[in-house]
Design brief:
Structural class: mainly alpha
Number of helices: 4
Order of helices and strands: HHHH
Helix content: over 70%
Oligomer: single chain
Shape: elongated
Largest sheet: none
Number of strands: 0
Strand content: under 5%
Distance between the termini: 52 Å
Number of domains: 2
Length: about 80
């Protein structure tokens, strides 16, 4: 169930947000929610790391590499140190 959040902003910013929402055919709540979701997505380190691991996994899979290959590479890297 959605909950409410009250925020304070200068009147001119409120007007700009309202105008932008109207231009995009959205209500202010939808526009603000999208902006906040994008901000969190772009600034949340955990999501970034998860995405990075997913991309690494996809790249390894595309190259035909499996769990055993990864374990060998880790072992070799650790042995070099």
């Amino acid at each position: 169930m959605p909950s409410q959040m009250i925020i304070r902003m200068p009147e001119d910013l409120k007007e700009k947000v309202s105008r932008q929402a109207k231009v995009e055919g959205k209500n202010v709540s939808t526009l603000v929610r999208e902006v906040l979701e994008n901000y969190i997505r772009d600034h949340d380190m955990a999501s970034y790391v998860d995405d990075l691991w997913n991309r690494i996994g996809a790249t390894l899979k595309a190259k035909g590499k499996g769990q055993e290959d990864i374990e060998i590479a880790i072992g070799q890297t650790r042995a070099e140190k």
